[in-house]
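Case study 2.
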Amino acid sequence: MGQYNIRKVNPPFVRVIAIVGCDGSGKSTLAMALLEKLAPKMPTQLLYLGQSSGRIGEWISQLPIIGAPFGRYLRAKAAKVHYFPSQPPGNVSALVIFLLSCWRAWKFRKMLRQSEQGYLLITDRYPQGEVPGFRFDGPQLAKTEGGNGWVCMLRKKELNLYHWMASYIPVLLIRLAIDEQTAFSRKPDHSLAALHEKTSVIPTLNFNGAPILELDGRQPADEILAESLRSIQSALS
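Prediction:
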């Protein structure tokens, strides 16, 4: 069912099993199943490595009085950069996006600390520096051009953050493939255009030459789990 391609790579490896794919491909389901199977055998932690703009926006919206309008304001600013990348972002938009990337980098540092402590980390998503855009777990400001000195500085710093994170190679990256129509049937609240973008771009990423296990996210969950466990055992040994 799966195709297991191991490429020669340079260190640093990290004790991480990364799961990537379009929304609706089964990343969260597989991550939880792997945690349940592996935790009794070895110290294992699950970590979400997305940039969490939706979750942060929800948290801000719940703040008293200013929460709801401020949350809408920030989400609109971030969305404008995605839909109108040819327009240089303003100072506030650039800062919001940069802070979201800093939040992701903070979680990534947490992952590295846990790995150094002997944990096996299972991550839902993994940052990359090949293609810009939060939709692909890449740098968002790199989608844009121009802007004042402040914006250019933030763009460069954000890009450096992603190149730094991408330099750490997981021992195994599991990529779940899925077509946009199946993804939309599972995630009808998502934009079909966004799902099309993800199903087109994510399969092209090489994640700095990481060992990649290619699986069909439309297959039964127990088959995906069994194939993943076999490849994880091989990768760790």
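Strands lie at 3-5, 13-21, 44-48, 120-124, 169-177, 212-216.
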